[in-house]
Specification:
globular, single chain, alpha/beta, 2 domains, Rossmann fold, binds flavin mononucleotide, 260 residues, Alpha-Beta Plaits
Length: 260
């Protein structure tokens, strides 16, 4: 089949998933178009992909699941038996049901999954876990995944015989929202509004960027990442407690799981 475009559909509040998806995409021989859902959109865009497009979906794992906000965006993304591949990045704990959930979400919307992968990375909340991953060696593995997907796209006439199996349980584990909400230090905040403009959940008001709507906040820490004044952060005591807990269940040297 003559392929058309590579459609990159992803959510990456703190930029790691974006880095991973771009490295895989760099090795796929198609012109790419990005749909980055890390930026708040009041109206969820409607995307319809063709049979000869190739879609690459990327998510960070949240509580062993697909981030709920991204799942909402996916409802409006449809294919026509469009081939697709999946990427889940996770902070060296576990990815649990996330890859299975992502697979089932896209399949329900007309995509045919021809590859899936889970890549261990730096933990976006406790950055001492998996620190600076993906590293050089990880990037090689990610590139290899892209090369294998490209090979598959070139080789197969159709993808009917491909049956990708990924681990996970159904029903999925309960989605638990993070309770680690970032706050603004009012003495440092210059009201530049970078946090409000970057928040994926629309939880920070442009008029009053010093406050956060905790009902909307998803605890992704994108505002902390984008704040140049270091005014946004989470309670250091809560962070230390979480670090203690996570250090017992995370492994800094986890390796990628690739399903082809
Ligand atoms: C709210 C939240 C929940 C998370 N849950 C998990 C998890 O269940 N397992 C895990 O290993 N990492 C977890 N992480 C870490 C991220 O999945 C990981 O750091 C990811 O690469 C971040 O991607 P991003 O930089 O594209 O946002 C979580 C991070 C956040 C902010």
């Amino acid at each position: 089949m003559k392929m058309n475009e590579l459609k990159l559909v992803y959510f990456s509040p703190t930029g790691t998933t974006r880095k991973v998806i771009m490295e895989a995409a760099r090795n796929i021989d198609l012109k790419s178009v990005s749909h980055d859902f890390s930026v708040y959109k009041e109206k969820k865009p409607v995307l319809k992909f063709a049979e000869n497009d190739f879609a690459l979906f990327g998510i960070p794992v949240y509580a062993g699941r697909v981030p709920a906000l991204f799942a909402e965006y996916l409802q409006n993304v449809t294919g026509k038996n469009t081939p697709a591949a999946l990427i889940a990045t996770y902070g060296c704990r576990e990815y649990e049901d996330a890859l299975l959930e992502l697979k089932e979400l896209v399949e329900k919307n007309g995509f045919k999954v021809i590859g899936a992968a889970a890549f261990p990375t730096e933990h976006s909340i406790v950055q001492t876990i998996g620190a600076r991953r993906p590293n050089k060696a990880d990037m090689k593995v990610i590139a290899e995944y892209g090369i294998n997907l490209n090979r598959r796209l070139r080789k197969e006439e159709n993808f009917d015989n491909i049956n990708i199996q990924v681990p996970g349980n159904s029903p999925y584990r309960k989605y638990s929202k993070s309770s680690l909400f970032p706050k603004a230090d009012v003495s440092l905040c210059t009201e530049c509004k970078a946090c409000a403009r970057s928040c994926p959940a629309g939880a920070i008001s442009i008029k009053d960027p010093k406050t956060t709507d905790h009902k909307k906040c998803i605890g992704c820490l994108r505002c902390v990442h984008f704040c140049r004044q270091n005014a946004r952060g989470v309670s250091s005591m809560k962070l230390r407690m979480l670090e203690g807990k996570l250090k017992k269940v995370c492994q800094n040297d986890k390796t990628a799981d690739i399903f082809l």
